[in-house]
Amino acid sequence: MKISARNRFKGKVVEVKKGATTAHVRIDLGNGLIVTSSITNEAVDELELAVGSDAYAVIKASDVMVAVD
């Protein structure tokens, strides 16, 4: 796989929660970092995502917001 996005992080799928049309997929990147993504149920099926499988979190954003308390 080749992709232009530079922010890609390999991890393990720890949860796949399907809704009516959209699923929430949680990927453990290690060191206590977990990324949650909302993707279609169709994408979950096509990628064969399941708890324990390897996956990449690919982040492509034009803006990054920073906040503090």
From TrEMBL:
The keyword ATP-binding does not apply. PROSITE patterns: MOP. GO terms for biological process: molybdate ion transport. Residues 2-68 form the Mop domain. It comes from the Bacteria. Keywords: Molybdenum. SUPFAM superfamilies: MOP-like. InterPro entries: Mo/tungstate-bd_C_term_dom, Mop_domain, Transp-assoc_OB_typ1. NCBIfam families: Mop. This is Transporter.
